[in-house]
Amino acid sequence: MRCISAIAAPLIVIFMALAFAPAPAQAFERRVLDSVVSVLPRWPGHAAGGQPQVSPGTEPEGSAVAIRPGGYLVTALHVIERALDITIRLPDGRHRPAEVVGRDPATDLAVLKIAADLPVLEDAPELELGAPVCAVGNQFGLGLSVTCGVISALNRSGTGFNPVEDFIQTDATVNPGASGGALVDGQGRLAGILSAIFTKESDADIGINFAASMTLVRRVVDDLIAHGRVIRPRSGLRVADLSRAERGQLVGARVVAVVPGGAAEGAGVKPGDLITEIAGRRVRRASDITAAIYLQRPGGRVPVKIERDGTLRTLELELPP
């Protein structure tokens, strides 16, 4: 049996730590901090902001990110959902009142507007598993901080947080108060908006954290600014997860019904079809279809791959405006 001496072991540990350590602190783009703000909602019965001590669903402070020029910010809806009014603490410490432009409960996203123009970060290009990312937010109401990790998973849905989910999973440390903050890549480009912590018995980080993807964020933000709400496409599909027995042989989601006269019926989809891919997104569960459809705009066309009677075919949904 080979072994490592007491002297060599620490040296190897140090070497590995250096080899796999994140980029030096100076490599983090300082400009990212100029695009993230602290959100101080005034909850019923409480002053704006508050002490770092929190209980689930009642964070005294949160975070938001500049999403468009002109003072537009995006945040997580649960940060401001019950707020009587909202104050934004700018990166330089000044305070500004914020108005709510729009809310989308389906994705837990909201758009705010303030009388201050902050720099807007470039969106990150296509993300890859294992790529380094950093979370920037007002964790525990202590002010903006940066924690780093990697992308653990992409296109997460069905986690149970929101009706519509397109999450990036990361092990970058995220705690209450960071919701609505920025997930950025190694070049300081915006990869997602911090949304949720997956935990069991305590509202604290255990390394499984979620950020709404920028594809979803941009889709929601554009509609909230233009219409005050998200204009949802209608697929005419009713789908369900496969049974436990079916999952032994199949992957996808089962069509349980189609709306008469709807897009699915027009495309030739039938009850009993197995959907394996939609809009280029692989389907593992029904929630993947929900997310893929939500990302589309009314009037668009969506390719759908199905399996029927052992035959694979591709259909096209034309989503009504």
Structural class: alpha+beta
Helicity, as a percent range: 10-25%
Can you count the beta strands? 18
Beta-strand content estimate: 25-35%
- Main sheet record: 6 strands, antiparallel, barrel
Mean of the pLDDT scores? 86
Low-confidence stretches: 1-26, 50-58
Q: End-to-end distance, in Å? A: 69 Å
The strand order across the widest sheet is: 1-2-3-6-5-4
User: Order of helices and strands, N to C?
Assistant: HEEEHEEEEEEEEEHEEHEEHEE
- Rg of Cα set: 22 Å
Shape: globular
* Number of helical stretches of at least 4 residues: 5
Write the layout of secondary structure elements.
Elements: H1 8-20, E1 36-42, E2 62-68, E3 72-76, H2 77-80, E4 85-89, E5 95-104, E6 109-113, E7 132-137, E8 145-156, E9 167-170, E10 182-185, E11 190-197, E12 209-213, H3 214-227, E13 237-241, E14 253-258, H4 263-267, E15 274-278, E16 281-282, H5 286-294, E17 301-308, E18 311-318
Antiparallel strand pairs: 1-2, 1-4, 2-3, 3-6, 4-5, 5-6, 7-8, 7-10, 8-9, 9-12, 10-11, 11-12, 13-14, 14-15, 15-16, 15-17, 17-18
Report on the structure:
41% of the residues are buried. The longest helix has 14 residues, at 214-227. The model is unreliable at 1-26 and 50-58 (pLDDT under 50). The chain is globular. The protein starts with 7 loop residues before the first helix and ends with a strand. The strands form 3 sheets. The protein has a 6-stranded antiparallel beta barrel. A 6-stranded antiparallel beta barrel has the order 7-8-9-12-11-10. Strands 13, 14, 15, 16, 17 and 18 form a 6-stranded antiparallel sheet that branches. It contains 5 helices and 18 strands. The protein is 14% helix and 35% strand. β4 (85-89) and β5 form a beta hairpin. It has 321 residues and is of the alpha+beta class.
